[in-house]
Amino acid sequence: MHSGTGSPGSTAGPGDSVTSGSENPDLFATEERATGRATITDVARVAGVSVATVSKVVNGRYGVAAATAERVLGVVADLGYESSLVARSLRRRQTNVIGVLVAEFEPFSTELLKGISAAMDGTGYELLAYCGDAGHSDHVGWERRSLSRLAGTLIDGVVIVTPTLALPVHEGVPIVAIDPHTGPTGPATVDSDNLGGARTATAHLISLGHTRIGYLGGRSDLESARLRELGFFEAMEAAGLEPDPSLVLEGGYRPDRSDRPTHDLLERPDRPTAVFAANDLSAIHVIQVAQELGLRVPEDLSVIGFDNIPEAAASNPPLTTIAQSLHEMGAEALRMVIAMLESGTTASKHTRLPTRLVERASTAPPPAA
After folding, report:
1. Which one of 89, 141, 191, 364 has the minimum C-beta count within 10 Å?
2. Is 266 helix (H, G, I), strand (E, B) or coil?
3. Which of 209, 191, 177, 10 is nearest to 91 (CA)?
């Protein structure tokens, strides 16, 4: 098997399997079949045509009779043949694949992926989801490592979920960042109204009669966490309430990191009557810790989160939260990437989507004094 040039007159491109007169097609087909993937040689043998003819058909080139092309495409479908993405990109300068880069597959990124996947229908593009932070102890910069591996070879454009660094516009590859750590800077971004959503969450607790409210924030280096904390303080001050600084703790957006701060909030003698956790995973953990300590939610403690991941509705009790339009965020990011690909531009457009309160059973008026 040779990758690259074929026999004289062949139109097979790099990455396709081609044979010359001195080569044994069955030998090379057997060698390639060991990879478990149908090859262009397999298609040619079953269809009874040359490798060059198969290459013309799958690459949409002229010079093949309609009946022959139909027979080749039927064999392609039967065998499940797909030419290499790398070879396709070298031939056409494009792969028709859009990458979605995530640090890890957790509930937030999974919901975004669902929105992106649904929006792919009818676009003519394919989707490659890539986890870029696996095995790295240093979480910062994972997106640049991923881009260097994929951009320009396997993907035409990319959606990056919560990148840790401000990203330059990557030459030749449109980038849209969802909820970037540094906020709307650099390439195009999509995020939610973190400030307004946090105000709404806090105002909801205040409207129920809570005045002593704990806040379990995200990571201090994230723009979303900074805005949610600011929204909490603004809503408290707008209601004429003085936030207790000792009730404002960092939870890191993760249950493992929020465990100690949660215990600190709930085990103190003057514990708050309500806790606003800056994301749902931390809020659900607050409920679990409260129940372990013998507190009833919401009778003894009200809890509200932020995100509206599926786990929020399934928690016990179901979690009151601020809903981000996670599916729409993913879909909008995809639309922005495709628009840039089709226009040939890399505009720095920044889109912010609204949030809304979803009332469930984890919030209620404070217990009577």
Report:
1. 141
2. helix
3. 10
Largest CA distance in the chain: 93
Phi/psi at 172 (5° precision): 80, -5
Mean pLDDT over 271-275 rounds to 98
Structure letter (DSSP) for residue 18 = B
Q: What percent of the chain has pLDDT over 90?
A: 56
Question: Which strand (E) or helix (H) includes residue 11?
Answer: none
What's the rounded Cα separation, in Å, for the pair 82 and 77?
9
Which DSSP helix (H) or strand (E) runs through 328? Answer: helix 326-343
16 has a pLDDT exceeding 70: no
The residue length of the chain stands at: 369
Is the pLDDT at 277 greater than 90? The verdict is yes
The secondary structure of 143-198 as a DSSP string is HHHHHHHHBTTTBSEEEEES-SS-----TTS-EEEES-TT-S-SSEEEEE-HHHHH
pLDDT above 80 for 136: no
